[in-house]
Amino acid sequence: MNNFRNMLTSFMQGRYGVDDLYRFTTGFIFVLIVVNMFVNSGLLSTLVWVALAWSLYRVLSKDINKRRMENRKFMEKFGRPAKTKFSLLKKRFDERKTHKHIKCKKCGTNLRFPKKNVTMIVRCPKCGSRYKI
Ligand SMILES: [Zn+2]
């Protein structure tokens, strides 16, 4: 088993491998296969084979930069945005009983501290301003 793993590792050396676009394509292929079980269309079955070949080609490709760019374009169009303003607000709301959030008056950095029943002096890690909370 370990030998097979080593063989696979050396085979994949310098090849692109799996990414988000691959995972999406695999899910898409799975959906196509399930749909095709009901409609039994030759066109869908051809599409499944083309998508399979394309995703396998991408995984085994040695042109890593090109595959990376394809994945980046895919993620820009369909990927989830990193951290939205809304998710930050939601996090603050969820933590309102355990943490305190203040904005540094000097540099604007958002500071987060655990809520304690004592007065603390905290320091902004970016500019060094001190606040009594
Ligand atoms: Zn600051």
Describe the protein's architecture and organization:
- The chain is 56% helix and 12% strand.
- It has helices spanning 2-12, 20-39, 42-60, 64-78, 85-94, and strands at residues 99-103, 110-114, 121-123, 130-132.
- Strands 1-2 form a two-stranded antiparallel sheet.
- The protein contains five helices and four strands; from the N terminus they run H-H-H-H-H-E-E-E-E.
- The model has no long low-confidence stretch (mean pLDDT 90).
- It is elongated.
- The relative contact order is 0.09.
- The chain has two domains: 2-78; 86-132, no CATH class.
- It has 133 residues and is α+β, with helices and mostly antiparallel strands.
- Bound molecules: zinc ion.
List the helices and strands and how they pair.
Blueprint: H1 2-12, H2 20-39, H3 42-60, H4 64-78, H5 85-94, E1 99-103, E2 110-114, E3 121-123, E4 130-132
Antiparallel strand pairs: 1-2, 3-4
Helix pairs in contact: 2-3
Bound molecules: zinc ion (ZN).
